[in-house]
């Protein structure tokens, strides 16, 4: 690559002990496309937009172009984070574009003064309350997030009511779609059904038949679980929907949503075919684009989006979110301004606004608010119940989980989530090894079944006898 196609930007760090690896590899979001963490060089690569995608009124503007960046932290320059920008062409980046790129990097890595204050305060509380827990002190106090609030909101939708491998697949498919929209939009009309069918390549028959066979097994299991839900059983926790009592999942739509998911999984699409290639590194790759912007998604057909990216019922929620942003009914800039003051009042105000968005129930809202810097509420799902059982010997249920986490982690207020998450992250690393060193192909192995310890398996086996 010619030198004129590259540009090096620098970002001042709060202190010389700041650690890129800790800041990035601190949440599963770093594993989701288009993020790519390289364990060897300890650098993060992904595309970033050259503009924030919002006009002066906070409405979604026309789609901006993207550039690939690589973020790294030279050991010889401890107070400076480097951002190498690729494919800039012969024209230099404007000061506004440089500011936008660095702003996105700072958001991902929590590099504001408020973030640094939170880190120091969390470390102080931990040193007083958990002298025996080195992992909590070493966590870093930063939880990785996306460069934009919209990307965080969509990814929080992908986290709800879904196993981790599929969440990864859906995020990747959305980035593949963004590449296709950028490179194929002139030759197809994505709003017309007939042209959509031509736009979607078929998955090879052999792999598709195998997938359908697996899905049939899933359908049988899910049907059984749905029947248990209707009789009041709490075994549906295995579907990771604890706390999703309003919009995340409700009694009237839960079965329809799962049937929609199963139907989508049977549909041939590029999104499905990428599952067979999950062991392949995403970079270099000529089919991965940036995470799509609201405007890029707003005019798509719901059925096309659901089929292409394997989103199921989530496609409708993501489309409505994108359309509301484009039309100005949801103003991301105003939402982020509210969270600049991390108070209970601003939290309640944001919760009220987010709850009005279709698909944003308690679990999804809580995750979005964590991404916005509120750490006093812990998003609770089946993973939380499993963790409390394995680590704290608590037999929590849907009804008691929120009360249980409040009781266990209240001594870390107002950073209860950071304490809980550092503990959970430590448990993951005990189980899978250091996550920052995990190969891309192994990300999909982080599943509920793989989190069960040998001791738990023995207990379950003895109960069956």
Write the layout of secondary structure elements.
Layout: E1 6-12, H1 20-24, E2 36-38, E3 43-49, E4 66-72, E5 80-86, H2 95-109, H3 113-129, H4 134-138, H5 149-159, H6 164-184, H7 193-199, H8 205-230, H9 254-266, H10 270-273, H11 294-298, H12 302-309, H13 314-326, H14 332-338, H15 344-355, H16 362-371, H17 382-392, H18 401-409, H19 416-432, H20 448-451, H21 454-464
Helix pairs in contact: 5-13, 5-16, 8-9, 12-13, 15-16
Question: How does this structure look, described?
Answer:
GO terms for molecular function: 8-oxo-7,8-dihydroguanine DNA N-glycosylase activity. This is HhH-GPD domain-containing protein. By secondary structure, the protein is of the alpha+beta class. The protein has three domains: 3-109, 2-Layer Sandwich (TATA-Binding Protein); 112-141 and 377-412 and 415-459, no CATH class; 150-359, no CATH class. 50% of the residues lie in helices and 7% in strands. The chain has 21 helices and five strands. The chain has helices spanning 20-24, 95-109, 113-129, 134-138, 149-159, 164-184, 193-199, 205-230, 254-266, 270-273, 294-298, 302-309, 314-326, 332-338, 344-355, 362-371, 382-392, 401-409, 416-432, 448-451, 454-464; strands spanning 6-12, 36-38, 43-49, 66-72, 80-86. The chain has a five-stranded antiparallel beta sheet. Strand 2 and strand 3 (43-49) form a beta hairpin. Helix 5 packs antiparallel against helix 13. Residues 186-247, 249-255, 261-285 and 455-465 have low confidence and may be disordered.
């Amino acid at each position: 690559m010619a030198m004129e196609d590259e540009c090096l930007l620098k970002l001042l760090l709060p202190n010389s002990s700041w650690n890129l690896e800790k800041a990035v590899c601190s949440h599963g979001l770093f594993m989701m496309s288009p993020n790519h963490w390289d364990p060897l060089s300890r650098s993060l690569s992904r595309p970033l937009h050259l503009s924030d995608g919002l006009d002066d009124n906070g409405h979604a503007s026309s789609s901006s172009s993207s550039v690939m960046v690589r973020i790294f932290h030279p050991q010889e320059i401890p107070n400076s984070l480097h951002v190498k920008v690729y494919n800039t062409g012969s024209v230099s980046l404007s000061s506004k574009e440089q500011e936008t790129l660095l702003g996105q990097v700072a958001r991902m890595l929590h590099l504001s003064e408020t973030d640094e204050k939170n880190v120091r305060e969390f470390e102080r509380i931990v040193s007083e309350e958990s002298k025996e827990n080195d992992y909590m002190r070493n966590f870093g106090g930063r939880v990785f997030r996306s460069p934009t609030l919209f990307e965080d909101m969509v990814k929080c939708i992908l986290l709800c009511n879904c196993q981790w491998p599929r969440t990864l697949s859906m995020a990747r498919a959305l980035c593949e779609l963004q590449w296709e929209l950028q490179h194929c939009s002139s030759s197809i009309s994505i709003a017309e059904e007939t042209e959509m069918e031509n736009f979607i390549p078929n998955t090879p028959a052999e792999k598709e038949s195998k997938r359908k066979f697996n899905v049939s097994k899933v359908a049988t299991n899910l049907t059984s679980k749905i029947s248990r839900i209707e009789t009041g059983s709490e075994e549906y926790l295995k579907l990771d929907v604890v706390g999703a009592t309003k919009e995340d999942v409700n009694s009237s739509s839960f079965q329809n949503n799962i049937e929609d998911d199963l139907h989508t999984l049977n549909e041939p699409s590029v999104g499905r075919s990428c599952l067979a290639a999950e062991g392949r590194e995403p970079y270099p790759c000529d089919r991965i684009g940036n995470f799509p912007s609201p405007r890029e998604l707003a005019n798509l057909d719901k059925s096309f989006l659901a089929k292409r990216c394997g989103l199921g019922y989530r496609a409708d929620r993501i489309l409505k979110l994108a359309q509301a942003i484009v039309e100005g009914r949801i103003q991301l800039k105003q939402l982020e301004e509210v969270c600049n003051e991390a108070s209970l009042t601003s939290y309640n105000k944001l919760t009220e606004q987010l709850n009005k968005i279709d698909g944003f129930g308690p679990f999804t809202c809580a995750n979005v608010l964590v991404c916005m810097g509120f750490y006093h509420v812990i998003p609770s799902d089946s993973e939380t119940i499993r963790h409390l059982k394995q680590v704290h010997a608590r037999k929590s249920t849907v009804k008691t989980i929120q009360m249980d986490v409040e009781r266990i982690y209240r001594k870390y207020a107002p950073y209860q989530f950071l304490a809980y998450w550092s503990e959970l992250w430590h448990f993951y690393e005990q189980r899978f090894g250091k996550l920052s060193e995990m190969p891309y192909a192994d990300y999909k192995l982080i599943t509920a079944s793989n989190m069960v310890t040998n001791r738990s398996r023995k207990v379950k086996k003895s109960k069956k006898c």
